[in-house]
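FAQ

Q: What does a record look like?
A: Structure on top, sequence underneath. For example:
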């Protein structure tokens, strides 16, 4: 059994026209699958009705993990594994010597937050090493903006896209084969 999916692409030359087009399409009840832009467009996520990203919450957790690792590392190396009397200041407790480790704790907090947040971002957006690009039109990496709409009434969507100032409309039919 095979099913046919239709994708409609509307290409814009200006980000303001794109934003107006997204708003008008959403007002008419048309579901937009994806928007491809060469740079971030302010207000596009709100116009598309996307929920707020939780990436900052992940960053906080990853930073806390980095701080914990830094505290454990400095305690283990300076108090447990190889305690040393440096400058006539014995290492009785980690708390007494902690001010000397603030730079290490800061660096590991930033390192963990930045790297793990980047990996989380790529994983959530399904960007894996060796994966082929999923961009349907390479002009969107330069100066064009593209709206992708699936399985809608082509004539109705075309009228709305033309009214919003679209430069080009493309229709692609994709076939998915499923074996039962």
């Amino acid at each position: 059994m095979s099913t046919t999916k239709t994708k409609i692409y509307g290409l814009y030359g200006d980000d303001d026209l794109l934003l107006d087009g997204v708003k008008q399409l959403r007002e008419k009840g048309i579901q937009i699958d994806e928007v491809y832009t060469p740079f971030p467009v302010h207000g596009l996520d709100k116009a598309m009705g996307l929920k707020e990203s939780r990436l900052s919450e992940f960053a906080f957790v990853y930073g806390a993990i980095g701080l914990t690792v830094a505290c454990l590392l400095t305690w283990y190396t300076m108090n447990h594994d190889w305690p040393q009397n440096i400058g006539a200041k014995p290492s009785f407790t980690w708390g007494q010597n902690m001010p000397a480790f603030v730079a290490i704790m800061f660096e590991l907090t930033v390192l963990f937050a930045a790297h793990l947040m980047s990996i989380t971002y790529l994983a959530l957006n399904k960007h894996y090493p060796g994966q082929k690009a999923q961009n349907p039109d390479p002009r969107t990496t330069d100066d064009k903006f593209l709206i992708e709409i699936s399985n809608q009434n082509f004539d109705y969507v075309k009228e709305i896209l033309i009214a919003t100032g679209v430069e080009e409309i493309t229709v692609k039919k994709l076939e998915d084969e499923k074996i039962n």
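Q: Is there anything notable about this one?
A: The chain has two domains: 2-38+143-177, 55-124.
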